[in-house]
Fold these 2 entries.
Entry 1:
Amino acid sequence: MKRAFFLLPLVIFLIIVGYFAISLRPGHDSHELPSAMISQPAPGFDLAGLNDGKPLALDTLKGHPFIVNFFASWCVPCRIEHPLLMRMAAQNHVPLYGIAYKDKPEDSSRLLANFGDPYRQVGIDRDGRVGLNFGVYGVPETYVIDSAGIIRKRFVGPLNAEVVEKELLPLLKQLGQS
Amino acid sequence: MKTLFRERLLDVVVQLFGMNVRHILPASQLGMGGQDRRWAEASTLSAEANTPLTVMARPVRATYALAVPRTVARTSRPMTIEGRPRVRTFAFVSLILLLPFTVRAVEPNERLPNPALEARARTIGAELRCLVCQNESIDESGADLAHDIRMFVRERLTQGDTDSQAIQAVVNRYGAFVLLKPPIEPATLVLWYGPPLLVVAGLIGTLIWVRRRPSVITEAPPLTNEEKRQLDGLMRETDV
């Protein structure tokens, strides 16, 4: 009994090591925040379309699972993921919708004209209120929303091929089947 | 005591601003014995006031010579009381400058016309975390997102939300992480009660340790005859 008592510091040390091992594991960003919106209904929105396109409204998107990508022309990481979005739209026919977050419409248009437009529709969120309702704290952020309009997954920061292959596409497929 | 405090304070001021700000104090209020201080010659604060004062300068002679006209710097006169009110104002202003003001990022155009609502918005803003900087409140942060959340809170308050409703609206969007003071819930129990528990455990441990320790004061065995003889010998030696 007495001997076991002296092992206590070691036990505490191992617990702390375990804690650090979990939060510092490779591929895990400790600054990335969990979304409070997972499994919650997506906040409603009805945004003016870019380039006089159709307005982007949540209600018209429901019925099929889809992806909403918050982007901006001033956002550097968005450029990193842009080619991937193009590929997702072209090869996988992912229902991808864009929301131009706190961006001048003309700048968004120029961005899509220069680098290609992967989105089926783009809504203008000039003051960032829709972003705020989604809990966006930086662009890009990508949300997977099911046919009932429930947010299933959020990706913070630029998507990469691995995440898309292993997480995003399988989730979308699964949501499409159910 | 009061004088000493003032001295210390002025030391800090001098360290911070150097000769750019000249700190002027009556000599009577300054301790002249300090080794690391060098007191410059007496000087006048301004010509029109004509109140001789002591200038406390950093030990950089060249800078000092530039800062104070030679004629003035060389005049040495005893202290007079007249300088005090000004000196006090100056010391007071310096003191104010030293206060660690919290920098507020709330911009004038964000403020609500209703002061009561604005005050409530400030209270809420101080409690909400800016998610971009993560260690600043939204009131302190200059980040764009902080601005948006400040405006959002004000909008909710204007629409008649209570404080807790407005906070809850932000929490619904960004999660409990936005609260700088985390709520007490199962996941945060260790956070809240861990430290006090550690203190209590430490106290209990100390108590057990103290209790178990053998008592220091024990009856000393009586001296043997041999020891008595030695002691007597020693006593006689010291008596000499």
Entry 2:
Amino acid sequence: MAYRFLSAGLWPIANAAADYFKENWGVSSLRLEESICPDIERRPTLHALTSDGHYLCVEVSESPYPTGLDSFVLDCRDNFLPVRLFVAIPAGSKDSNYKRDLDQARIRAVGVLEISGARVQVLQNALSQSLAGVRLVGPARFPKKYRFQLSKAESTFRGGDPQKGCSLLYDEIESLSRRVAEKTYKKGYWRPSAPGARPLRIRFATHPWQKLMSKVVEGLDPQRCRFLPPDLLGRVLGITSHRNDSAHKLNSLRLVMKRDRELRTRFESATDILFDLVNASKPLRV
Amino acid sequence: MPTEVKSPELRHISVEAISKNPENPRLVFRPGELEELLESIRRYGVQVPITVYHEKGKYVLIDGERRWRCCLKLNRSTIPALVQEKPDDLTNLLLMFNIHALREQWDLLTIALKLPRVISLLTARENKKPNERELAEFTGLSQGVIRRCKLLIELPDKYKRDILEELEKPKPAQKLTEDFFIEMERSLKTVQRAMPGILPDKDRTRQILIRKFRRGIIKSRVDFRMVSKIARAKRVEVEEEKASAALRRLFTANEYSIEEAFADSVSEAYSERDLLTRVRALLNRLNQLRKHEIDDEVRKWLRELRDRVSKLLGN
């Protein structure tokens, strides 16, 4: 294989990385130093399209996170490109910044392969940049009881199962909003039923979530329950339709990009809703 | 005799329409340095146009291979370029040499590997082999650089390959550098000239010295200058037998270092010569001084010197 940018001393590393992905990922044709998209400023040393509609990109370098890679990572995230990016480095680096660069790679969800001859060691795996670029939840800003589940949601989302990640967040929002609905009802914050109307019979724990939230939006009296703004309840109602979106296996780049773009927005918005709801419902002690 | 080239024309040309110049002496592109240039071009663009000539629908690089490579990597569609007429083979090479003589220097070995071709093309054009001065004029290199290159050209191919491998590494990580080989070759040449019988197998000696350097027995490449001094023992009136014994031992696979060989053979004689040179220089200076020209500080040290000399001479 002939490279136009890569220094000749690193060619064996690139070739060993190519062999590794052919053998272990079943990638058939790896392209050499070609553009993956006109909007992306850097051409990775190797790239291929995988069967699950993602780009596999390999950058060969002496450092686990070369200086210019930040712009590539940002471009991928901004363009919602589902790129799994690996950096392949020669084993036995004596670079004083090795540990710092390895950390940078981990933080930016970039995989690292260490190569010695034909031996390839995966130091860390790569996540899809279109998902890894999601705004972080920051579990520490939530009350302790939510933190474990939120960390799990975040790692599930970034780890390649965005539907499941969103679903874990929706679980929390649903559970909290049901408790809020029940408590506000019991405390008499809802508008009284019209004379002669049938009293509300509702099982707060099991009633379909969307219907329950519609009733809350209709029934809750903002004059009596001033700490729960109607627009927040509307936002909760707005996400109920996505609650049971099922995950289908996607195999085209276009569909993966579309899904990741939507789910990243949903995940970030669900995080904000949960945060606002947790804070707004504090007086209810739910 | 001088080579003239018409003024080039500035254009933005497609990065993909450019190909490398097969005559480019530069062979080594270190990753760290490329990465730095890449980042600079990403931020500020190509500030200095590359130079190319047009041939059969393609552009061939004369200058700017690293900038061109970076633009490819950065997915740029065009690059600013000065487009020249196609030069003849000799002008093509000389242009590349002259452009680089004025800027960052190439690795010496890569120049050395191309010099024989320059010499052969110049010989064909001028009907005579160029001397060092002429070669310097044509290539823009200094005569010193050309002499150093010649030492590298004469190295067996395996060492040239070793140097090329070493050059791929970042500069601070390079150990067996061009300078190491130049210092070693110079000293071995001096030994060959001054004590012809001592190096029956020069290549074996090289291997032993390289091994000693790798193991730290030879600490620095400049230690080889001491080898030259040992070989020129006659100049400081040291018995040749003593110096050659030290060199023979040094050129044998053992733990014997250059410093030890120097100390065992000529160190004292060179120190003595050094002392003599200094004393003579001081005497010369003192002879030029008049009494009223010396101040208290100088007077104090001269007295100290007089006492010390008297003590040494036993007066």
